Amino acid sequence: MDIEEFRAYCFSKKGVSEDFPFDEVTLCMRVMGKIFAITGLDREGFQVNLKCDPDYAVELREQYPEVQPGWHMNKAHWNTVDFEGSLSYQLLQQLVDHSYDLVAKSLKKAEREALEKL
Which domain CATH number covers 81? Predict the structure, then answer.
């Protein structure tokens, strides 16, 4: 999955926006204003930081060398995923879905209700 496929997949979900809040090369994907994915556009290779359940994060890291503790993130809750490695397209989509779902579930009730109406 390349950056454009990643962006298109993220935008296929409800309430998604993107921005560059930190600098001109750090792309953040948000659901209802909360970050669920971060990637640096200035790096070699395409890696994305994705939110993850802590137990599932450990399992993924043990099973796949392409999944590492989140770079510059809370390592218990974020993974850095190599999108150019050998992970299947389907697994990459599942990891994006998992991150999106975790963040969407953490939204305030009014935000969750607004998201459901989109």
Answer: 3.90.1150.30
Number of independent structural domains in the chain: 1
**pLDDT digit string, tens, across residues 78-110:** 999 999 989 999 999 999 999 999 999 999 999
Reported pTM: 0.95
Residue 38: strand pairing partners? 28, 49
Strands 47-51 vs 78-82: parallel, antiparallel or unpaired: antiparallel
| pLDDT one-digit tens code per residue, 36-82 | 999 999 878 899 999 999 999 999 999 999 999 998 898 999 999 99
Report in angstroms the alpha-carbon separations of 10 from 22, 26, 63, 88, 89: 20, 16, 25, 17, 14
Q: Could you give the 3-state DSSP secondary structure of residue 51?
A: strand
Within 10 angstroms of residue 99's Cβ, the number of other Cβ atoms is 26
Provide the residue range defining the domain that includes 43: 3-117
